[in-house]
Write a structure and sequence with these properties.
The protein is α+β, with helices and mostly antiparallel strands. 32% of the residues lie in helices and 26% in strands. The chain has a domain of 78 residues. The radius of gyration is 22 Å and the shape is flat.
């Protein structure tokens, strides 16, 4: 069986580590230790993903990056300076598009009609 199909979750009641298939993410299952229902939560799954990521030592060409979604969790890694630049340009480009849309909505700017 493929190891990547399994994740480790913590029981919300007793804290016992529970292994379950990744497709159980977000579902409720009974803890084999305390026999109470517990939800297979995402933050514990994110920790599994963090542990599975290859770790690289810092060198002159890598920079630390942290990405997150508030309470959903965050992810820290290192990427090359080139990749960090690409990520920043992609983010700023998306931000500019969103800002342009907001300006158009606020000032009721509409595209010209095609004849």
């Amino acid at each position: 069986m493929n190891e990547s199909n399994w994740l480790t979750f913590d029981c919300q009641e007793c804290g016992e580590a529970i292994e379950a298939k990744s497709k159980r993410l977000g579902t409720v299952m009974r803890c084999p230790c305390c026999l109470k229902d517990t939800k297979m939560e995402l933050p514990n799954a994110l920790e599994e993903v963090r542990r599975a990521q290859p770790r690289r030592g810092p060198n002159g060409n890598e920079v630390p990056v942290e990405m997150g979604l508030g309470k959903m969790g965050s992810f820290k890694t290192t990427v090359s300076k080139n990749d960090a630049g690409r990520m920043a340009h992609t983010f700023l480009g998306g931000l500019m598009v969103a800002l342009g849309m907001i300006v158009c909505i606020v000032f009721k700017i509409r595209p010209p009609k095609v004849k």
